[in-house]
Amino acid sequence: MQTLRRSPRITVLGIGNLLLKDEGIGVHLVQKLSGTLDNANVKIIDAGTSPDFLSLVDGNIDKLIVVDAVKAGNEPGTIYRFSPDNLDLDSTSPISLHEIGVLDSLKIMALFDSLPESTVIIGIEPKTIDFGLDLSPEVEEKLPELINLVLKEIEETTAMEVKK
Amino acid sequence: MSKIVVDPITRIEGHLKVEVTTENGVVKDAHSSGMLFRGIEIILRGRDPRDAQRYTQRICGVCPTSHSIASTLNLDSAFGISDKIPDNGRIVRNLILGAAHIADHILHFYHLTALDYVDVTKVLKYDGNDPVLNSVKEFAKRGELAPFVPRYEGDYRLSDQINIEATAHYVKALEMRRKAQEMLTIFGGKMPHNMAVIPGGVTETVTVDKIASFLWRLNELRDFIDNVYIPDVLAVAEAYSDYFEIGAGCGNLLSYGSFDLEGGNPDYTKRDRLLKQGTVSTDLKLGTLDTNKIMEYVKHSWYADSSTGKHPTQGMTEPQPHKKGAYSWAKAPRYDGKVYEVGPLARIAATYASGEPAVKNLVDSVLSRFKASPKALFSVLGRHAARALYTKFVADSMPGWLLQLKPGESAYADYEIPEQAMGLGLVDAARGALGHWIEIKDKKIANYQCVVPSTWNLGPRDDKGQPGPVEQALIGTKIKDENNPYEIGRIVRSFDPCLACAIHVITPKGRTIGIYKVC
Fold it and tell me: Strands A10-15, A42-48: parallel, antiparallel or unpaired by DSSP?
């Protein structure tokens, strides 16, 4: 029997608050990336300050790339790449609600078995989270690298074929 | 005497601290603090006035749509075109706002509130075939229920069957919210942060296809509201009926109204709206809305005392993070010098007091079911019931608006940005009265002030020492167990707080996220 194959569906989700400088990195990336890719299977979404992204991600995608500011205490501009397995999704007493948006969305998707086959979080260590529309020089400087990392994720995935 | 600090209290969307002092099991004192400073005014100064629509939407992840409407009404008024918006533009704005409010209130009940009353762990007793419930059961078996916390132990009263059904509805509600957001994007272009609502009207043209596409989603949502959402709220009310007497609050309600039914009157306080503008107290008489009576006080907020007692048009943002006696980044807005609560209860009460027949029927039928007087509306359950009835009333009104749209006709009126102008935009956001004020000089923003719903409800004491609405709702409450003060969470969440939302920073495993330091 012949197996039908199709190209993978990918969603890039940029998360952040544009008004809070480096916190808005996900949205800055989406603004740079929007319209540059000629592939109907790749969706680039400005998730802005949505408390969760459950309504924004289609259930049938093969890969989810989440871009957000990640505070891990390293040098500003440090780029991170990790999967939900590296995240403490089971924490029962979050210290701050600010972390809940992304983590809860992933958790709820896992709970309902709708987490895409491949999910990756790409983040950058912020320098300044304070009122302002621009990125700090340290983060701004790394934006092209961050974009390349996202493009690489997309290319690697599109190179694969998935069963229909 | 002992102190209970509940921090944070919003389940998903903001950062708010509530500190309660108890004596002999009764709340003696309460302080609610917004812990993040809001600097939108600083960002907007000197910019093109039209940027206000784009940037104020970014203040909050939950209310971007309401900010888009308030800022646009504000710009319409500053540009002198508030009475010139074509009907198509006015109605499409209503449809966009209505879709947002439906999505929002469903989210609030199932994903923020229900967990105070529904015991999700009862899913362990589920023995049916529903794959989603079985998946939740598997997670519960492993003790992994992170999205369903923080919650308190001990006061769950619903039957196993209702607990399990409500858990299934939690899942269904996510799907319904998605439908409501899809509905929004038909005319709004995208969600969050729609692009369609602009001064002069909307960017979207009205077509028959869009109307049809909107309508079939709306029908499904109305079915969910009537047959799932409202019955679940009533089931909670049955089991927790003592919460009709808990959390009364200040007894004064303020509504800016929502959904313009006509566009001819340039004065938003007098324009005919589906939900009425005005003030209502426990006597349920409707008072006229006069925005000149709005003042903001900062004696207990971290801002310079010289900026106290100002009308929003004169508003200033002068942070003083070390000010003695201050405990909040929120200011204390007051109406006519008095404390007012805002939110769905306020707009339902104002509309009820105006004699609107559909709202009167809805409210009276709920009150008679619980043999309660209208006074019972001023309570934890009164707020939840009002929110649900509001959702129904709006959803039931929307098919009529779709029929009034005229495909092919304009949804936009042109305008010029004036050299100098003042503007005012008023609308009820999902969480209550939302006001935007603008001053334009040299075609640029000279001043921009937003007075948002959660500032009304969760603001601190004013200069006269009057506690804010949530503080008043807490004071006097009996606490059964100080180690497990579920009453506090239930009272505060009934207001649907949303302070300083919109920060998303994630942390890899093993690291604690820092508390934000703002200055």
Answer: parallel
Give the ipTM of the model, two decimals please.
0.86
Flag whether residue A60 sits within 8 Å of chain B, measured between CB atoms.
no
Contacting A residues, span 143-162, partner chain B, CB-CB under 8 Å: none
Beta carbons within 10 angstroms of residue A39's beta carbon: 11
Q: What is the pTM of this model?
A: 0.91
Say how far apart CA B116 and CA B95 lie, in whole Å: 31
Q: Helices B380-404 & B344-353, crossing angle to 10 degrees? A: 70
State the Cα–Cα distance between residues B231 and B169, nearest whole angstrom: 11
Residues on chain B touching A88 (C-beta within 8 angstroms)? 507-510
Name which of B503, B106, B284 is nearest A19 in CA terms.
B503
Contacts of B67 (CB under 8 A, 6+ apart): B56, B57, B59, B60, B429, B434, B436, B450
Under DSSP, is residue B515 helix (H, G, I), strand (E, B) or coil? coil
β partners of residue B440: B421, B445
Q: Per-residue pLDDT tens for B238-289? A: 999 999 999 999 999 999 999 999 999 999 999 999 999 999 999 999 999 9
Question: Are B230 and B388 contacting, i.e. CB atoms less than 8 angstroms apart?
Answer: yes
Report which secondary-structure segment, H or E, holds B64: helix B64-78
Report how far residue B77's alpha carbon sits from residue B231's, in angstroms, rounded to the nearest whole number.
Answer: 41
Domains recognised in chain A with CATH numbers: 14-163 (3.40.50.1450)
Q: In whole angstroms, what is the distance from residue B8 CA to residue A110 CA?
A: 25
| N-to-C CA span, chain B | 33
- A91–B506 CB contact, under 8 Å: no
The minimum CA-CA distance between A34 and chain B, rounded to whole Å, is 14
The one-letter code for the residue type at B136 is V
Contact of B370 with chain A, judged by CB distance below 8 Å, is answered with no
One-character DSSP codes across B407-474: TTS--B------SEEEEEEEEEETTEEEEEEEEEETTEEEEEEEE-HHHHHH----TT-PPPHHHHHH
Question: Which amino acid, B21?
Answer: T
Answer whether B174 sits within 8 Å of A50, measured CB to CB: no
Record: contact A49-B139, CB cut-off 8 A: no
d(CA B468, CA B298): 12
Angle at A125 (CA atoms; ends A122, A128), nearest 5 degrees: 135
The domain ranges of chain B are 2-494
Task: Find all residues with CB under 8 Å of B242, minimum gap 6, and list them.
Answer: none
d(CA B475, CA B23): 11
Do A89 and A106 meet the contact criterion of CB atoms below 8 Å apart?
A: yes
Task: Enumerate the residues of chain B whose CB falls inside 8 A of the CB of residue A101.
Answer: 12, 61, 504
Q: Is B498 a catalytic residue?
A: yes
Helix B380-404 to helix B357-369 angle (10° resolution) is 150
pLDDT per position as a tens digit, B347-395: 999 999 999 999 999 999 999 999 999 999 999 999 999 999 999 999 9
CATH topology of domain B2-494: Cytochrome-c3 Hydrogenase; chain B (1.10.645)
Nearest by CB to residue A131, choosing from B39, B144, B190, is: B39
Which structure tokens are listed for B16? Answer: 């708010």
State whether the Cα torsion B379-B110-B388-B90 is positive or negative.
Answer: positive
pLDDT above 60: residue B11: no
Give the β-pairing of B505-506 and B278-281.
Answer: unpaired
Query: Are B278 and B288 spatial neighbours (Cβ–Cβ below 8 Å)?
Result: yes
